[in-house]
Protein 1
Amino acid sequence: AQRVTQPEKLLSVFKGAPVELKCNYSYSGSPELFWYVQYSRQRLQLLLRHISRESIKGFTADLNKGETSFHLKKPFAQEEDSAMYYCALSGLGSGGSNYKLTFGKGTLLTVNP
Amino acid sequence: NAGVMQNPRHLVRRRGQEARLRCSPMKGHSHVYWYRQLPEEGLKFMVYLQKENIIDESGMPKERFSAEFPKEGPSILRIQQVVRGDSAAYFCASSPGTVGYGYTFGSGTRLTVV
């Protein structure tokens, strides 16, 4: 079974402070991992995917297979980063390919001025 | 490209009525997925469709729920005889192929059953 855990429901930091949103997963195969972000009143958007190893809006995330984690980090948080963040894992579905996303419950990040 | 379009944005139904939720995928995307988000929960997979085919409906409740993606027109998620527990946000997503590219999500339909 595949599972994604985001242990923090709420996270509050001050502007300029480092931020780390935690994500742990459970999956027997080789996972594909994503971070999605939902700004207030907007749709869910893809922020990062681990296979591309990119940095978007200053955020990075490294897949640690030993710790089964995919934490999202940013060295200096900005007020516009305030949003709901979801970690997701792509695992094998019965249709035969990795299309099924399993989401964590999300972490609401608030960046205070 | 207008992205993934879902309508209506908000839907209120009385218990026992039918709810129809529509999703038009992004241009060029032939894979559609429906997810449900209950209060305080993450999104949960419901169904995966390609044109005229249901590929995986393992996340759909066994009764009252159905989905289709016809050759022409939007994908429809249909809930018959709605109950209060069906109140949730329903999200549609589409992709051009494998999920390695990530989904593109619609804005969702918030269903409230009164």
Protein 2
Amino acid sequence: QVQLQESGPGLVKPSETLSLTCTVSGGSISSYYWSWIRQPPGKGLEWIGYIYYSGSTNYNPSLKSRVTISVDTSKNQFSLKLSSVTAADTAVYYCARVITTIFGVVKYGMDVWGQGTTVTVSS
Amino acid sequence: QSALTQPASVSGSPGQSITISCTGTSSDVGGYNYVSWYQQHPGKAPKLMIYEVSNRPSGVPDRFSGSKSGNTASLTISGLQAEDEADYYCSSYTSSSTDVVFGGGTKLTVL
């Protein structure tokens, strides 16, 4: 079955750019929407944004000015970049597959999740 | 402050039924049938339990059910089991801002 794995640095300095990659295995990245979600320590979930395999994106307005999500179908991967990070960006970052119909309609439920990766912003 | 409102905690004894509410507005829960529920055990990734208000993914026990009335969605767990103890989050599509909003989460304790 489809599995997701996040990868990237666990420590990022303030004002720098956080970069994470999600590798999709056991299935194709095509025909689905893919999402990034984060969870600060001891807090709830926050949606960051999603991308369709074709490259169209949608971002949380509160992060939009700092977020870029991209896809590489040849590598079956999608990525997250978050610029100008502060301590408030310290969180567990999850990638997830979004339920998508065969007609490309997004259904917003996220049915496959990566295990999550902890990113700490500190000098 | 989360866009969707959930109780901070609920509890129940094994075998009982509990319901977790998720209250939004007509711009999210009340206006669309895109409510999802997630279960999260400590240190683990969330798991999808319900999507589109009341649909269960393959493998989720039928003890878990979802419903919606007006601007409030509900997750009901019947025949409560010890392994159901976890945090539960609702989410919904929203037309007002972020596209996807989450509730603040509810800690379920099985007594």
